[in-house]
Write a structure and sequence with these properties.
437 residues; mainly alpha; 2 domains; globular
Length: 437
Amino acid sequence: MSDAILPTDRRVLAIALPIVVSNATVPILGAVDTGVVGQLGEAAPIGAVGIGAIILTAFYWIFGFLRMGTTGLASQAHGAGDTAEVSALLSRVLLIGLGAGAAMIALQVPLFMLGFRVSPASAEVEGLARAYMGIRIWSAPAAIALYGITGWLIAKERTRAVLVIQVWMNGLNVILDLWFVLGLGWGVQGVAFATFLAEWSGLLLGLWMCRAAFRGRAWRDVERILDAARLRRMASVNGDILIRSVLLQAIFVSFLFFGAGLGDVRLAANQVLLQFLHITAYALDGFAFAAEAIVGQAVGARALPVLRRGAVLASLWGAAACAAMALAFALWGGAIIDLMATAPEVREAARAFLPWMVAAPLVGCAAWMLDGIFIGATRTRDMRNMMVVSALIYFALAPFLLAAFGNHGLWIALLISFVARAVTLGLRYPALERAVA
């Protein structure tokens, strides 16, 4: 079996690079959406698409655990040679994704009310945003189910298929954006219809990419799919990941809130600099996903040498990517800031804190890679608990460092949370190996 063979650099790169390229297409779509409605010559449509997309993305993000949990569980089943469970897992996550999306459609009125309570807007922007969201919400089942399909394909090391799906969806979305908005004059609704069609077509393409799983009988084995023990394990894994993700999001949201107290310029500068972290995460995702797939298969096969080598190789490539990011930020960080901000005072403030962005990839690399290793091993309870510790350290230190060093102190607290996550997960790694051995 492939999972019993010691991983190579080529195998790691074959998994990682398509994800890196796939991630690079994501911000392009956002830029096109904004640019197309910007041609309408009014501010309200731009704001409506922006706020509508943010609210829907926030709701979809809740189900992001499907991607990570599915990768860990499916890769372990694949490594153990349990092809029936691999197929049944796909059906299980599709049912969860489609069901969650249907629930969102049914609950759209209270969900939209909640979204606009958290992110208030002018009457005109809110009206347009509601029209946008009222169309896009009907593709929620496809968008959420695609999390599960993506995780399943990564577990099978089929990241080229993930790339094809992402390029297809984003490419179709861009073409339909131009046609519906500029050609047919549908405005904000045209952007929404473009995304609606792109997401459903992406789901259909994803199902076609997974067609091998539907050739046997396991994918429709209701008894296996709805097996109580397997469902409990899936719920436990996904629940731990959800709690971990909520805490991580709380750190970043509070970071912006703390920064808001320093004035609009500091807040804007921090928002610009956080994009550097997003860029780093996009670049590192591929290597973290490689660790998830290889480690998960090794755990399923009970192959400790494969696990160790896969974890080391993926982490070394991840470290190289982080070093490249740090160097790029050091050399061209100022130019990147100028592209993202035009206000002179914001540019000046962002440059003052740029050194923290040079340090961030180097400081955060271990935490990101250990996340991938622990997801693959489905040691999600450890991930959850160590994130609780890291969040407590951050929230305990941030107010004091902010008072003592201003915005520099805030960045120090954020980087300390990365270090805390890496150290605490690192201390739990020997237990992971003992469980496999």
